[in-house]
Amino acid sequence: MRIPNFFPSRTVAFYMGRMFLIRTFAIVAGLVLILQTLDLLSESGRILAYPGNGDPEVWRYVSLRTPQIIAFVLPFSTLLGTIITLSTLNQNSEIVALRSSGLSAHQVLAPLLLAALGVSALSFTFNDRIVTRATATLDQWKDVDYGPIPIDRGDRTNVWVRDGNDLVEAAQVHGKGDAVQLHGITIYQRQGGSLHSIVMADSGKRTGNAWTLTDARQFDVGSDKAQKIGTIRFGANIRPDQFTLANVDAAGMSFGGLSQAIGELESAGRPTGSLKAELWHKISDPLSALLMPLLGAVAAFGVARSGKLFVRAVIGMMLGFAYFVADNFALAMGDMGAYPPFLAAWAPFLLFLLIGESVLFRTEE
Fold first, then answer.
1. Which of 176, 260, 269, 339 could form a disulfide with 344 if both were Cys (CB 3.0 to 4.6 A apart)?
2. Where are the transmembrane segments (predicted)?
């Protein structure tokens, strides 16, 4: 049984794919240059404000910020590259020649879809290996106002935990499980929604089913007096994982790291809906490049001399940008818990996949 060839000739496939990729990455380079320049103008003052910072720190910021900008503009560039490629082919009557040779609309788009799939794979790898590390490092650098970044040993900082009506703040958290060590602890003790005293201690550790603070000091809000209270125990209902799993930054974690963190949170009985949406979005976001040839195909299948080529290109851009709006909206709903995680990450992709196919069939002449 002979399998029908879904692609046009090898020469045509390479020609269209190369044209699409060149235009896409040219747009990426232009947008990155413009956006990086504008971003550097707004941040260079803060970078140089730290004593001792100079040109090396500015270039370091550029090296950390550029991957984020590339990840941001790549889907838009894929859309614009698709529209420019198809508009050029249409204007030169190359689409008409391909259609006249008996190729279907999907066969005409096949080289672009394959190239877009390669862009998606490249985008996922780039985001997972480079962008996440750059984001995590840049966030740490911003937290210290572009000063020296402390060595990251997996410790947690500025962790807040609730103990009944009381609030517990730990400036630093070291270790895991029952070996967790707390440093710079502040307990805000409340009654009836009002603060009545503050307990502070330099260090604390897990002993039995509670936490022990040494050399604790207490400040009474009502009497405005402070006193030393020595060793105290608190937080019988606070588990160690509430300190160690308090903050999970999905943007600064790889797919595997985020998946592991979600597993740990689930084992501790913590909500993970918004993080699961972010995890699925790490796949659906790069795959958005695969949608762009379908959404931009409206610019290809129409008679160029009818004078409506520009209108078709604008329609393709509107469809593409509508997808980005819907994607951000669904992800926000997922973060709020209004959408299930899978739906928040994949609903816009599947919806606009159907829209792209529908527009492709309706606009084909």
1. 339
2. 20-38, 69-87, 108-126, 309-326, 338-361
State pLDDT tens for residues 16-65: 999 999 999 999 999 999 999 999 999 999 999 999 999 999 999 999 99
Provide the sign of the torsion angle of the four alpha carbons 280, 281, 285, 286, taken in this order: negative
CB 247 within 8 A of CB 156: yes
pTM of the complete model? 0.78
Measured between alpha carbons, how far is 89 from 97 in angstroms, rounded to an integer?
Answer: 10
Residue with tokens 């190239």: 115
Say if residue 128 is in the same domain as residue 16: yes
Specify the amino acid at residue 214: T
Give the whole-angstrom CA distance, residue 280 versus residue 317: 25
Question: Could you tell me if 259 and 267 are in contact, meaning their C-beta atoms sit under 8 angstroms apart?
Answer: no
Distance in angstroms between the alpha carbons of the first and the last residue of the chain: 31
**Number of domains comprising the chain:** 2
Owning domain of residue 218: 165-236
